[in-house]
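Figure S7 source data.
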Amino acid sequence: MCGIIAYLGEQPAYPRLIKGLKRLEYRGYDSAGVALVDQDIQVFKRKGKVSNLEAFTETLASQTGVGFGHTRWATHGEPNDVNAHPHLSNNARIALVHNGIIENYASLKATLEKEGFVFHSETDTEVLVNLIQAIQDANDLPLEEAVRLALRRVVGAYAIVVADKREPHVLVAARKASPLVIGIGDKEYFLASDATPIVEYTNRVIYLNDEELAVVRKNGDLEVKTLANVPLTPYVQELDMKIEMLEKGGYDYFMLKEIYEQPNTLRECMRGRLNAEEGWVRLGGMEDFASRIAHAKRFIMVACGTSWHSGLIGEYLFEDLARIPVEVEYASEFRYRNPVLTEEDVVIAISQSGETADTLAALEIAKEKGALIYGIVNVVGSSIARLTDAGSYIHAGPEIGVASTKAFTGQVTLLSLMALHLAHQRGTISEPRYRQLISELAVIPDKIKKVFEQDAKIRYIAGEIKDRSNALYLGRGYNFPVALEGALKLKEISYVHAEGYPAAEMKHGPIALIDENMPVIVIATNRSAYDKIVSNIQEVKARKGMVIAIVPEGDSVIQTLADYTIEIPETEEPLSPLISVIPLQLLSYYIAVFRGCNVDQPRNLAKSVTVE
Ligand code: G6P
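Tokens for the predicted 6-O-phosphono-alpha-D-glucopyranose complex:
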């Protein structure tokens, strides 16, 4: 949520900032702006996408090698030019970009107003930049010192980069609960919300920790300190990210590319963790706490959005295979409801970005209460990955489309591996069944490829229903969370109202909505509940609803009942979500394209939700 990119080096900053902002645009696209630091500070900002800013700065000739930019997801104040970042202090000497929320901004603002400060925007950020000016003015302090003192008066979350035109060769950055990465290039530094704008120039990075401050200087100096001014020796890591991962690679949208990447990303997720010939699964991340995890009284999955849907599938997997009770919680609810937790609980945080503010806060609570915390995360080095006691990366590579696809199947794959491992360890699964599920998991990537053969048919169906304003998704058992996920995908990217429901619950409400205008997407692949799903389809048809059914290959019964069927390869039921979600991802993708929506950057959403 909000993206920051800063450059300090020998090359012109501006083109690097624009390129970086485009890479970060998935974090917010309400407005974009840059500050270029020379003898003076020039600020350019515009409502809307980075392309608007680019058009606005078309004739810009600045060659300065110091500057920073911001792409905004609005919290305080509507998206417009004035509320866009960077913000300048009243004396126009200090410029600042910010990701996060300053919670005590109102009281700080009132104090500053009494001192004569004037505010032009509605943002909390403008309060912070003026607080820095006030502190600097009162004591004639260098920028670094003033920033440190200001941050000690701030309550809330922030990643900031600040410049002072009296010190044009210096950038000061700091973080608390919002991410910030420092890229170390050849005679140049980058500061960014994540590594995506950096990877093209260097793979050497430092992840700043909470309440740390960094100062980079044109002479090559880099200092990292705590807010209490204690110098630190930063840990420099090597990034394992390739620039091609950040390009569309010939696809119209990142989302489509990411859907099509899934056979590969799942193979990456299973690499070294599953051996079908020898019949084992293991997760390095579980080894250090093997006994505590195997003897856990309860697992609690905390997550948001699509990751919460993965957690629901995890509940089915863990309870079914490993016979351990599981609860699945929205992180935002969990953190505020005084949950009962003990040291015998394992809390699993599921997060693509590893930065979701509510999930992070839920983990802090779980940690305080002594539970073991385990992370299932995609972004390497992210805050959640670093906060957990143990964890496993899903290795899906950067996911840029705001609607999550490959991260979802990666999370479900990892949860399947965990459930299988635990089931085997706890003796709750027979050896033949264990081996059978392992062999089946190993061929899921090939089966997903077969679903892609249905692409043209799914596109056709999307064309048929693109103008409907509602949709109902039904599924049972393992495929109930898939119905929720299918509905969420449609809502997110095509702005069509959609609901996911357990198929049998339809009778308790949603059936009242069904008429000839209501497409009902039914996931009808579960062998164990096949007849019941057929009955549910009959009920929809009896009320003139339009049925689109996801059916097992070769199905002949539902073919005769449904308006459209999409055949997908059969698999073992616990693994079926990995396949049944694919046609739903494609369906929502094509509907959004037909409706003329910006699939990768849907309105009002952001990929990395770093504020509550
Ligand atoms: C946002 C994204 C969703 C994502 C959710 C949780 O809402 O748009 O795609 O599922 O956050 O994010 P996380 O990074 O924690 O998985």
